[in-house]
Amino acid sequence: MRGPFKVGDRIQVGSFNGDVVEINFLDTTLWEFSGNLMTSDLPSGRLIRFPNSLIFQNQVYNYSWQKFPLVWNEISFYITYKSDMDWVENEIRQICLSHLDAKTKDHIQDMRDQISETPVEGIEIKEFPFINFRIHENNWVEVVLIYIVDPKLSSQTRSDIVKAVIPALLKEPAKVSFAPEGS
């Protein structure tokens, strides 16, 4: 029987988030991630067992779909207007790429192909990862890094990128300055 997920997939059914560890005729068991105990994508240690009838009553989100097993992730950094935006964009992009595993890099073209096959026009990926800039009301610029990642590695990858980007940007005070504390 075709199902919306298999053992090992990272899913959300209703308010339940978890990695599927067991599927039986009557129920499914998830190893919870996020939830009440954790705010990250790491397993909380709790098991969630729910009746399979919930699958027909709720949306099912599969974060590890076989055709495209990655999810979008984003990180924000805050800099001043005086910063060299092109340099910051390039530096963050290169650091992010250096922290993505080979499996993820292999899927970048798959992602481009899937987006180009959608009926939605105007979506084109020229550079990856994406870097978007937003003006904030407190007179600073939010730099948003958007990239794809294995859903089970999302928290660790985010942490690794942050730990690499901040020191790299701090090394170049002539090219980038940060929003003052308390703004």
Give the secondary structure arrangement, pairings included.
Layout: E1 10-13, E2 16-23, E3 27-33, E4 43-51, H1 53-57, E5 60-62, E6 71-79, H2 85-99, H3 102-116, E7 130-136, E8 140-149, H4 154-170
Antiparallel strand pairs: 1-2, 1-5, 2-3, 3-4, 6-8, 7-8
Helix pairs in contact: 2-4
Subcellular location: Membrane
Domain Mechanosensitive ion channel MscS: 3-39
Pfam families: MS_channel_2nd
Briefly say what this structure is.
The protein has 183 residues and is an alpha+beta fold. The chain is 28% helix and 31% strand. Keywords: Membrane, Transmembrane, Transmembrane helix.
Please explain how this structure is put together.
Helix 2 crosses helix 4. The longest helix is centred in the last third of the chain and has 17 residues. The model has no long low-confidence stretch (mean pLDDT 84). The strands form two sheets. The chain has a five-stranded antiparallel sheet with strand order 4-3-2-1-5. The protein has a three-stranded antiparallel sheet with strand order 6-8-7, with helices on one face. With 183 residues, the protein is α+β, with helices and mostly antiparallel strands. The chain folds into two domains: 53 residues, Roll (SH3 type barrels), CATH 2.30.30; 100 residues, 2-Layer Sandwich (Alpha-Beta Plaits). It is built from four helices and eight strands, in the order ββββαββααββα. Its main location: membrane. This is Mechanosensitive ion channel. Keywords: Membrane, Transmembrane, Transmembrane helix.
